[in-house]
Amino acid sequence: MTEETVIGVNNSGAAHELTPEFIAAVNLALDQNETTEAISLAQSLHYADLADLLENLAHVRRAELVEALRSDFDPNVFAELDDTVRERVIDQLGISHIAEAVAGLDTDDALDVVEELNTDEQQEVLEALPAGERSLIEQGLSYPEDSAGRLMQREVVAVPMHWTVGQAIDYMRDTENLPTDFFDLFLVDPLHNPVGTVPLSRVMRTGRDVELTDVMRKHIKIVPVEMDQEEVAFLFRQRDLISAPVVDGAGRLVGVITVDDIVDVIYEEHEEDIMRLAGVGEEDDLYSAVIDTMKSRFSWLLIHLGAAMIAAYVISFFAGTIEEMVALAVLMPIVATMGGTASVQTLTVAVRAIAMKELTMSNAYRTIGKEVAVGVLNGILFAILIGAVAWAWFGSPALGGVIGLAIVINLIVAGFTGSALPILLQRMGYDPAVASSAFLTSITDVVGFYVFLGLAASLLL
C-alpha cells in the first residue's frame, strides 16, 4: 500500500496534512513494523502537526514512533506538545537529548520546555547548554511565572536611533544571529532604551538615505518584564499589535513579544478559565493517567458535596412539611435547577467580562443591577409558566403560586450572586473562575429550597 493511496498526497514535497487517514497510515506502518515508512510519514509533517500526531497515538505506538525518530527528532515539536505528553517524551529520550533540542530552539520556546522540568533536570539541561544560551534561560527562569519575562523572545533586532534605512538593511543582511522571524526594528538610544519601532514593510518601502527616526513609530507600547501575560494579551488585543518591546526595571530593551506568543497565551488562559469554571485542575487533561485525573477532580467534588450537604440540612428542617405534601418533593428540583442554571449563566458572563477587563468597579453596580433586573423579568415569566404547570399537575392554584414566587426570588438571588460574587472574590485577591462555582451552587440551592419549602409551610399548611 503506497502513501499516496492512503492519504492522496502527491510527490511535490509539500508538508502533509494530519488527517484521520494519515494517522491510520502511521498506525498501520507501526503495526507492521515498517519503521522506515512510519519515519517517512512523520517527517513529512509540519512540526506542529507532528506534535498532534504524537498526542493522537496510543501510548505504546507513541513510544515506538518517538524511538524511531530519536536521531532526527525535530526540537520544535517539544514546544507544541501537551505538557503531559511532553513529559513522557522527555522521559523516553533522556535529558541529554533534551539539552541538544533546547539548544536549537528560540529562547522563548526553550524556556517553555525547560520550565516544565523538575529542578534536577533543569540543572542538567542548563549545564549542557552553551554559556550564552544558559545565561539567557537562567535569567528567564528568574522572572515570575506567567510574566512577560517568561513569554518574551530574547533575540531582538535593535539598531541605533541615528542609523539610516540603508544601514539597517545592510546590518540585517550581514548579521547571522538574527531571529528566525521578526516584524519590527527597535530603535534604541545609547542607554539601550527603546525610543521607537519601524515595521519591516516600512523599511522596504523607504529609500536608503532616509533616517530611521523619520519613519519610526514614536508612540510605542512598552511591556515591563514582570507584567502578567494576561495583561500583555489584553494590550495586544487593544492596540492590534504584532510585536512589542520588553524592558527591564531600568527601561533597557531585553526582549520582544510577538503575536504568535500571544495567540498561545489567549488559548491557554481561555482553556484555564473554562477548566476552572468546571472545577477541573490544569493538570487534568485528555492525556493524564486515571489516578492523576481522579486526584485532580476529587477535591472539587468534595467541595460540591459539602454544598449539597448544606442544602440537604436545610431540607431536613421541612421534613414534616414534605411528608404532609409529597408534591413539594416532586417540585423541589425545579426551583434549585432554575436558580443554579441562571447563576451559572450570569457567572460565565461576569467572569468573561472580568477577564476581558470590561467589568470593573466603575461599572460593577450597573452590571449587578442589570442582572438583577434580568432575574426579575425571567423570574416572572417562568413563574407564570411553572405555576401553571404545577396547578394543572396537582390541581392546586396555591401550590402553583408558591413555586412561582420561589422561582422569582431564586432567579433574583441568582442574578445578584452570579454577578456580585466574582467581583467580590477578585477584590479579595481570589480567582473568580476558581471559587465562584461552588459558592453559587450552595447559595442558589439553599435559597431555593428554603424559600420554596418555607413558603409552602407558611401558606399551604
List keywords for this structure.
mainly alpha, 3-stranded mixed β-sheet, 66% helix, MgtE N-terminal fold, CBS-domain, 461 residues
The H-level CATH homologous superfamily of the largest domain, spelled out, is SLC41 divalent cation transporters, integral membrane domain
Q: How many angstroms separate the termini?
A: 79 Å
- How many E-type strands? 6
Q: State the helix count.
A: 23
Structural class: mainly alpha
Uncertain spans: 1-14
Strand content: 5-15%
Task: State the shape.
Answer: globular
The level 1 CATH classification of the largest domain is Mainly Alpha
Q: What is the percent of helical residues?
A: 55-70%
Q: Give the biggest beta sheet.
A: 3 strands, mixed
Strand order of the largest sheet: 1-2-3
State the CATH topology of the largest domain: Tetracycline Repressor, domain 2
The ordered H/E elements are HHHHHHHHHHHHEHEEHHEHEEHHHHHHH
The second-level CATH architecture of the largest domain is Orthogonal Bundle
Report the C-alpha radius of gyration, rounded: 29 Å
Mean pLDDT: 87
Count of the domains: 3
